[in-house]
Amino acid sequence: MPKVLIVSFHFEPLEIIASERARSMLKFLPEAGWEVDVLSHDWQKINGKYDPGTVNICKIETLENGNRIIRLGAGNKHRKIQEKSEKSPLHSINILKNWAQGWFDYRAVCRDAHDSMDLWMEKNLKNNYNLIIGIYSPHTHLRLLSKWSKISGIPAHIDFRDLWNNSIASNNPKLDLAQKIQGFFIKRYWHMWLQDSLSMSSVSSSLSNYLSHEYKCDTFTLYTGYDPSQFPKRSANADAIFSIVHAGTLYNNQKIEILLKGIKLFLDQNPINEIEVHFPGLIRPGVTSKEYSYLSNAAYLVKNALDDERVKITERIPVIEARQMMCDASILIKPCFPNDPGIVGGKMFEYLGAGRIIISAPNDHGSIEEIILKSNSGIICDSSAEVAKELQKYFDRWKIDGGLNPENSEESKSLYSSAAQMKLFGHWLIAKIQN
Fold this sequence. Notes:
435 residues, Rossmann fold, 2 domains, eight-stranded mixed β-sheet, 42% helix, globular
């Protein structure tokens, strides 16, 4: 049985969508004939926030099937350096210097994590694996795999759960000067780091096509997928109210305005006591738009557009509570990335897992449209009037039937499950290493 090392900065118990990629590989790649080790970090909550560990330690957890989770403490050397640099008038020059040297991740913790993984690989990699998979982001994983694949002779596969800026892949000209400068250096280093990779994968066909063309490498389109075991049953009283839910964060390159205007039109035409609209996780105190590309004024935009007592906006809630809210929803709303048709977003697959009707807008004419139509999971709209019309249609059905059932079947969306995706991926990888 071939053995793979999966290198992932994000992993359990870190409760974010970025952890799902490695979690699904660990759980489902063995079903395709792989023995799996995951190399990640010692994620722990410190003062209410997850941290990958400030002390250089190594913990190994062996699972029942013999696969392992290797957790490293990241250390904090570069975090201390960044704290001092941010107070310096030369901070912008230091950032430019880092870019020129191939350090592109905004958070210094990524560089601390790189150093801890680099040391582990020096001591432990040897010839113990048939393949190394590095999950991007952060950029530091690309540097690591390029170095250690050459030293060890073990082939490397790069899995892109996103790109550094998906606008580049979709030829979006709306890049500011800093993005253009950083993009110049990134392209230069990525070509150096990726030129000897065995293969690559990405979350949509358009991004996979971009990678294949740019780096002359075989690519596989690997959707993050959903795991049915992670989603609770609907609450007994879920149909007592017609609930519209948007779960999670909004990003700068999403267009929420069409959905908001459509919801406003719908709310204005219907009774107050039968409808609720929820935005759990929209308020993100202490998190900057600069650091994560979040839509920094998202809560303000929603409040301004939907000044209605039926609209509830909250901070992040535990994942299990968010998934319960999704499962209990009548309608889930999904804003698209119209200028970046290759972006899907992990939330799309959580919505599929929740099994409720999805209304998405504006049409990206790309991956989100393809998934919604192929899985028969909902409707994708081009205008606010269309959003309001669809909401009214489902609301009228909810009133008549006393509830609202999804129009798809488990079979129609099963291709997008994590198990199905990883099985296809695992067999593809075996063929690659055998050629």
